[in-house]
Amino acid sequence: MPWLNRERMPLVVSLVLAAFCLSLYIGTIWRKWGPILRSQSLMAPKVNPPVALDFPLHWSASFLALSGEPAAVYDYNRLKTVEKDLTGFSSLPWPYPPNALLIDLPLALAPYFVSLAIWLTVTMGAYLLVLYKIAPHRLTLFWALAFFGTFANFIQGQNGFLSAALLGGGLLLLENSPLMGGMLLGLLSYKPHLAALIPLALLLGRRWQALGGTMVSGMCMILASAAVFGLDIWGIFLKNIHDTINNLHTQPLWFYKMPSIFAAARLSGLEVATAWIFHGVVMLAAVALVVWLWSGPASPAIRASALVLAILLFSPHIWYYDLTLLALPLAWLWREGRTKGWLPREQLLLLASWAIPIVSFSMAVDLKWPHGPLYLVGPLILVVQRYYWERHQPPKLRVVAPSC
Questions:
Q1: Alpha-carbon distance 232 to 240, whole Å?
Q2: What is the dihedral of CA 227, 238, 101, 203, to 10 degrees?
Q3: φ and ψ at 368, to 5 degrees?
């Protein structure tokens, strides 16, 4: 086929991906959501499983907060009762701090399906915009929509789009608007396990304005949640942390959807303490990665990619919808290759890194195989390879990545 040359191949592949994406999303909405939308009330989608498996938790928590019972989100029996009454389904206990409830507060102002549509449209739009800013190309959105993490979060109705938009947007702004970038990063404190390494990275990178913005926005979120819900809710949250974590540690069915070393160790039959030892080693490795690349001369794109990968390694309670975060380093690495030149086998490894999450998810759920963060191996190799390539360029040829 003479017309299928090197220049046209990416376009053809992306068009195939676009068709696949459209069929996947439209098929899901038509097949799973369509009958419910036609037969159920917009306010009370009482089906099991529900449309967007995790959204009932967030919508019901918002309902309790708007009804004057914000602290009840930490009473699992009360939350479960309300969730079943409203949606016909109950899921996990509420695991988030009160500042996350502040973000979810407006959700129950609209009927369930309207709220879900607005939530996905706004957060997914912000997520795709950030990815396009990282890798501005007409094919970026096709690859982003076809990425497994994107679809996993879409079908769950979760907050992975918001997390990726805040983290990616904050890192993008570090060069030109460090204070604003830091403030976006501070908002990620609504999921503390994803934000734990951010202050360390900013400190090592001597990003003082960004670090100040992170601290200020994080503290403002805490104060705002205390002002809206009352200071006592933080005491209740801190009192319930142990039960929440213990609940996560003792539910084997959840481990298949948690691609971490801790979950893999538990699925292998190890006790909680032993699993923590294994994961503790990984946490130290994640910290070492941040220390190495943020205190050295790495380009902004390599630093940003390393931080995101370290965050995914660090947390023992990463879920598959959090893999929206993985799209960020893949986009930065693609831009690095496209603007600075591709290294040997880099394109193939990048494509494999894009595809492996769906493979690892299938191994976990279908084969019940404790795979751990297999999906991070390729991106970590790419980051280290690109970093060493940068270090060994002649000074006059060494190019600093565009602001990230």
A1: 13
A2: 90
A3: 55, 45
